[in-house]
Amino acid sequence: MKLSTNAKHELEEALVTNGLRATRQREHVYGVLLTQRDHPTADEVYARAKQAMPSISLATVYNCLETLVECELVKKLNYEREPSRFCPNDGEHAHFLDEATGRVFDIDLPENFMREITNVLPQGFEAKKFKLSFSGYAPKDLAGDHCV
């Protein structure tokens, strides 16, 4: 998977900041996630990665995914009784799990949402991150996993 110059720079910078180095495998797994932004499981990332890099192992894919999460390039999504999914969308957004299909959708949030939502915190609390997730049923006629 060939990364754009911008994505490659972003990856290298995040890795160096965390005391790590860029590898072909990390670059490839990150490219897989950026190519098809459908919140894949680790097994799905492995299957896609193996197409262009047949020698990559499942353990390597898991390690690369964990590294990308640690470097905050990718979000790890956990739902009850579901395998973890991975999201490369670095903007502030929520997720919606369609319980009928298992698909996960990015939900754009209003511009000042973080500021507004943190107003509910007691005085003295400071949020660095938040995770907002919905579950239910998406319209059946949506073409694929995407921002809505």
Short summary:
By secondary structure, this protein is α+β, with helices and mostly antiparallel strands. The chain is built from five helices and five strands.
CATH superfamily of the largest domain: Winged helix-like DNA-binding domain superfamily/Winged helix DNA-binding domain
The largest β sheet comes out as: 3 strands, mixed
Q: What are the low-pLDDT stretches, counting only 5+ consecutive residues below 50?
A: none
Count the beta strands.
5
The CATH topology assignment of the largest domain is: Arc Repressor Mutant, subunit A
Domains, number: 2
Question: Which architecture of the largest domain would the CATH scheme give at its second level?
Answer: Orthogonal Bundle
How many whole angstroms does the radius of gyration measure? 17 Å
The total count of helices amounts to 5
What is this structure's SSE topology?
Elements: H1 5-17, H2 24-35, H3 42-52, H4 58-70, E1 75-77, E2 85-87, E3 93-98, E4 104-108, H5 113-118, E5 133-136
Helix pairs in contact: 2-3, 2-4, 3-4
What does this structure look like?
- This protein is an alpha+beta fold and about 150 residues long.
- The mean pLDDT is about 90.
- The protein is built from five helices and five strands.
- About 35% of the residues lie in helices and about 15% in strands.
- It has a three-stranded mixed beta sheet, with no helix packed on it. Strands 1-2 form a two-stranded antiparallel ribbon.
Features:
Dna Ligase, domain 1; 2 domains; three-stranded mixed β-sheet; about 150 residues; alpha+beta; two-stranded antiparallel sheet; Arc Repressor Mutant, subunit A; about 15% strand
